[in-house]
What does this fold into?
Amino acid sequence: MKHRRVLRAAVTVAVTGALAAGMTMALTTSANAGTTLRASAAEKGRYFGAAVATGKLSTGAYTTILNREFNSVVAENEMKWDATEPQQGRFSYTGGDRLVSHAQANGMSVRGHALLWYQQEPGWAQNMSGSALRSAMINHVTQVATHFRGKIYAWDVVNEAFADGNSGGRRDSNLQRTGNDWIEAAFRAARVADPGAKLCYNDYNTDGINAKSTGIYNMVRDFKSRGVPIDCVGFQSHLGTSLAGDYQANLQRFADLGVDVQITELDVMTGGNQANIYGAVTRACMNVSRCTGITTWGVRDCDSWRGSDNALLFDCNGNKKAAYTSVLNALNAGPAIPTDPPTDPPTDPPTDPPTDPPTDPPTVGCAASVSLNSWNGGFVATVKVTAGSAGTSGWNVGFTLPSGASVTNTWSATASGSTGAVRFANVNYNGRLGAGQVTEFGFQGTGSASGVTPTCTAS
Ligand code: XIL
It folds into this structure.
């Protein structure tokens, strides 16, 4: 404790010095050259981010560097399952909201980390299994992604689901034991809850072409071929004293599948190679046009979870390290993301416009269709409502659920009834539809809803 206080005093003094030096540099360098990580990354169409422990946002020495150098943040712990849903069904967003406000006030985007992870599960979830856990986990994804809807650039929907070593397969966990489709169920639920966020799969020990990264590669390829909504893959990149020679080639093979790639938790062990490795990682990202940004897992060495590794870009006094210069130079030297064609064709089957030419008589009233994502013991239903030729000022969709099925959660509609004949009415913002216009709502349930068909009435 005592040691800490002394350290903090030293930090304040040293950072004042570094700030003054930074300002001199800005004045003497040409206006085009980036002199901060955030400006240099932005100039190349990318972000440069840091993991933030929100408790540190009130420490001036920390926040000064954060705001000057970074234009993206991710919560080091505050958006994880144990933090956001400490008791089942009781959600806590204090830390996450605080980070989002800080980001919004300082021109930063936010990466969401992580909706589902086998670690930092709250105790109640650790004790669950099977369909109860499956429902709880989908509910968690839905609630948290809905809470932050519109505020998150990219979500790590699932973190660290693959095993280390040579198997190339999934890691055992209570989540995995709910069925191999748990990852796709999570991505579908996240898409419904926040259609604007990029949805990422995130993992470590994937820093080159190896059995684990190939297992993930095969999953992403499969998801893309079946229309499972995935937009990006995060490479944590917690690195030692060397970098795989095929680091960039590995990023590129994922990008070639049609997903963005991001370096999400970069830190590098100290040693002769630290600055070189940081530079090489940055260059690799710059050379892959779908690599949209880099995040370091912390700001200063002493903020790092890696203890004495001194793994970050700023020393404990807030001074820029050689690794910082190496990253900045690589950002400045790298190519910009080509602005056209747009990098991001939509990945899931487009929900609108309607695919068939309107040769049949136009629908008066409304039509509804449902797509089900089911597992043993539960389901998520995504319902598409299409207005007929007169448009709608409100709509109501009915289902008759098979016995044993029950609605547990609804979004973008108001449910009446939970078993048997259930109805869903529009909420205030999606009732009014123009002719042919489409809106979506969803609900989650236990049991099986297979074979259900919706009927739609318009007002
Ligand atoms: C770490 C945090 O930095 C620590 O504060 C916490 O005690 C444990 O988790 N991979 C991840 C991150 O995806 O969430 C982890 O963060 C580091 C490894």
In short: The mean pLDDT is 89. Residues 76-77, 159, 236, 265, 305 surround XIL (CB under 6 Å). The longest strand covers residues 366-375.
